[in-house]
Design goal:
Number of helices: 10
Order of helices and strands: HHEHHHEHHHHH
Radius of gyration: 23 Å
Distance between the termini: 26 Å
Structural class: mainly alpha
Shape: flat
Number of strands: 2
Largest sheet: 2 strands, parallel
């Protein structure tokens, strides 16, 4: 028995306490990586802040500080956002490292290839949310405020909280294709099941779009469409993986029949 097989056997025979110890180790790694990312974020917080407050989305607003901690709080939020972006690939890798002992060798190698795409899709989600959804939400909110005859006085904390509330969930939702591909690869999901639950999935996606966007039909529609496209793209990717799995299973069955 090779060293690899010995290692796999030892890992497969881990007790519940050993699994908990392994999980604790992975969580510690993630926390360390997040802390390093937070430190890096503090160094780049000011240029990012200057870009955000001078961008087209913010140029028409006079942003105010309503407490002594507002400036520090904004820097910390930006730093945490930077840390999250930098940590996403490491977090996914640690999740993969924790579940990989239960995977077959080909599943382990194939699923590891998804890690870079997690980062790419997360960045794509941030860009889509910031440059499309966020300006749309601001325009709608401002139109309602103006129609009510209210004087616009915005706090810097409220502005950035509103932005992060829209951007971060959308960035996470863009991870749907990778998640479904991974779950298909480890045989938890398949395209047949995904197609059967399509109506439920659409309802959930519409509900998410309604929650994270302003309360108007146009905003909901513009956010729902890319989410539905992401889901259908995920089903397509799942079907590609599933066909390969069926072909591999048929080959194994033919070999041993």
């Amino acid at each position: 028995m090779s060293e690899v097989k010995k290692t796999e056997t030892a890992q497969d025979g881990m007790s519940i306490f050993e699994h908990l110890g392994e999980l604790r180790k992975r969580i510690i790694y993630v926390l360390i990586i997040f802390l390093v990312g937070l430190i890096i974020g503090l160094f780049v917080a000011n240029p990012i802040y200057q870009y955000l407050v001078n961008a087209d989305q913010a140029k028409d607003y006079v942003l105010n500080a309503f407490s002594f901690w507002d400036g520090i709080g904004i820097y910390m939020k930006i730093s945490m956002g930077v840390s999250l972006v930098l940590s996403i690939p490491a977090i996914v890798y640690q999740v993969w490292a924790f579940v990989s002992p239960g995977l077959r060798e080909e599943e382990r190698k194939a699923s590891l290839k998804y890690v870079p795409f997690v980062f790419i899709l997360f960045i794509a989600g941030i860009l889509f949310a910031y440059f499309i959804i966020f300006p749309m939400a601001l325009a709608f909110s401002r139109a309602v405020t103006t129609s009510m005859g209210l004087k616009e006085t915005y706090g810097i904390t409220q502005y950035f909280s509103f932005m992060f509330t829209l951007v971060i969930p959308m960035a996470l939702l863009f991870e749907l294709p990778v998640l479904i591909m991974f779950l298909t690869k480890i045989r938890v999901l398949n395209p047949l099941r995904l197609r059967k639950m399509r109506k439920v999935a659409y309802f959930v996606l519409v509900l998410i779009a309604v929650v994270i966007t302003p309360p108007d039909f146009i905003s909901d529609f513009l956010v729902t469409i890319p989410l539905v496209v992401l889901y259908e793209f995920s089903v397509y990717l799942s079907s590609l993986i599933y066909r390969k799995q069926l072909a591999a299973d048929a080959e194994i069955e033919k070999r041993y029949s």
